[in-house]
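The instructor's notes for this session suggest beginning with a concrete chain rather than abstract definitions. Hand out the sequence below and ask the class to guess, before any prediction is shown, which regions might be ordered.
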Amino acid sequence: MNKLFDILLFPKSLYKRITSKKLSLYTGIIFVGVLDIIFVLFINREKFFTGKIREELIFNIVLSLIFIIGLGIMDVLFFSIPLFDLFKRFKKKEGDIRVADNREQLIKLIKVYIAAHFLILPAEVFVIYIYNNFINGVLIYFAAVIDLLVPIWFSAAITRGINVLYDFNFLYRRIVFLVVLIWNHLLVYAFSYMIDNWILVLFK
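After discussion, reveal the predicted structure:
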């Protein structure tokens, strides 16, 4: 079972090797920002990047880069800071104030969140490809099932990384998954609304 979890959720050893180095943090933030908006831009590629005059094309490209960086920063901070404060309370209740107040732990928490994106990326690419190239059939139903499972898979991977970082007791380990799953759901809804209603309308 542990080997299966290592494949589906990344090995615990990977999370143990996470450091607080800033360079990998910055590149990871950009990676998350790319994932936040790249699929929407790909779907609207003809609208935003085809048949445009030079000034409009440059504007849309620059705007895309700005939003990649901005969304990446917002995404990781909105996810990690509230949970960092919550987990700090958990550790204080366990009597481990030193770990709870360690700011390097925040960077490691962000990197756990970033790492989980690498895990689910192939599934997201598959789902988007099927949705955009098939109208009906078995693959559509298969993609729909994967689409429903990805948030659970994503949250489970993050939870595994968090439990490695914080070494919570049995009770908090169970709570962490529910917290991560609900918080991810709220963030996905908020970012989807923001991208569809506030960001895409700015492109020419």
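Then share the key points. The mean pLDDT is 92. The longest helix spans residues 54-93.
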